[in-house]
Every structure is written in C-alpha cells, then in structure tokens.
Amino acid sequence: MAGVIDTSEFRNGLKIEIDGEPFVIEYFQHVKPGKGSAFVRTKIRSLLSGRVLEPTMKSGDKVGVPDIEEKAMQFLYVQDGDYYFMDKRNFEQTFIGEKVLGDAKNFLKENIDADVLFWNGKAIAVTLPNSVDLKVTKCDPGVRGDTVSGALKPATLETGFVVNVPLFINEGDILKIDTREGGKYLTRVATAG
C-alpha cells in the first residue's frame, strides 16, 4: 500500500485498496443529511475478481492507495498458454496467464499495443485499443448482392476467434473488431486480393 487518502478525495476512476485488495471507484456520492454526520455512498469494482461492492463510508474515513502501475506494452507471442509482452520503454519482457487476459486473448496478434496494469509488481489486467484490425482466415464464400439483407454468418479470424459477420465478407478480408463488447464486427477495412 502506497499511502492513505480520505473520502473527500474520492473521484470516479480512482484506485483504492480495501482489506488488501485493489478496487476502482465507479460511482460515489457525498451525502449530508439534515441530522447526523455526513457519509459517502460508493460503488467499487475489484481489479482482481471484477466483483462489485457498494459500501457506505463515514465522511473522513481513510482508505489505502494501492501500489499500482500502468505500463504501455507490446504483445510479442504465445508459448504454453502464457502470453509474452514487452515494455516499450525499457524492452523488459513479462508473461501474463490466460486467466488474467480474459477475453482480450481473442484479439491479440503480434506487435499490438496494450496497457498492462500491475499491482505489487504482478500483472492483473490488460487493456487493448477499442478496436483492432484482424484478417478473416475461414468463412463461407460471400454472395454477390448480399449487402443489405442483414443476415449474418460465422467467420474465423487470424487469432482463432469466431465472430458473426455480414454475408458479403470473404476469406482474406480485413475487419475492424470492437474489443470492448466481446468482439463485435464493426466494418470491413480491406477486401481480399
């Protein structure tokens, strides 16, 4: 724990530590009732497990500041279920397990940039760009004229992830995929050939 702060310093996105676990404040509200002392309603999310808590704290209560560092890193390769990243400033390499990556592993290709969050020197979260461009490696052939029907078909991307795409998409096309919403197709960036 790097220090302490009190509830008057709360803001959305602030990272705090409670009972030895790092949290991020998603919502807070200072309440001053007519009678009694002021308090703070909060909604916090664990950076380790993702669970959400809604504690109420007295005005002036103190919480810890976690030892958190965010590093700009570049994805290099996968080996035995470990994903290797390189720090873009000092070129040090570290590996991150599949469990920490979660859905982000579906969008990782070599040399993609990511922000890696470290707590007490251990990687706990990876944030990718909002969208990535990935090549279609397998899908049924597109049919001429199927551009406005709204029907979808599955397509396998170069990372092995399967996404639903419009019927006019072909193998070899490059697609823009939204990494925030579980891999939603956004648009075609380039066509095959």
TrEMBL record:
Record's function text: Involved in peptide bond synthesis. Stimulates efficient translation and peptide-bond synthesis on native or reconstituted 70S ribosomes in vitro. Probably functions indirectly by altering the affinity of the ribosome for aminoacyl-tRNA, thus increasing their reactivity as acceptors for peptidyl transferase.
Source organism (scientific name): Cystobacter ferrugineus
Pathway(s) annotated for this protein in UniProt: Protein biosynthesis; polypeptide chain elongation
One GO location term (cellular component): cytosol
Any one Gene Ontology BP term: peptide biosynthetic process
Chain ranges of the Elongation factor P C-terminal domain: 132-188
Family from the record: Belongs to the elongation factor P family.
Occurrences of domain Translation elongation factor P/YeiP central (ranges): 70-124
UniProt keyword annotations, A-Z: Cytoplasm, Elongation factor, Protein biosynthesis
InterPro entries per record: Elong-fact-P_C, NA-bd_OB-fold, Rib_uL2_dom2, Transl_elong_fac_P/YeiP, Transl_elong_KOW-like, Transl_elong_P/YeiP_cen, Transl_elong_P/YeiP_CS, Transl_elongation_fac_P
PANTHER family per the UniProt record, alphabetical: ELONGATION FACTOR P, ELONGATION FACTOR P (EF-P) FAMILY PROTEIN
Protein name: Elongation factor P
Gene3D superfamilies documented for this protein: 2.30.30.30, Nucleic acid-binding proteins (2.40.50.140)
Localization in the cell: Cytoplasm
One of the record's GO molecular function terms: translation elongation factor activity
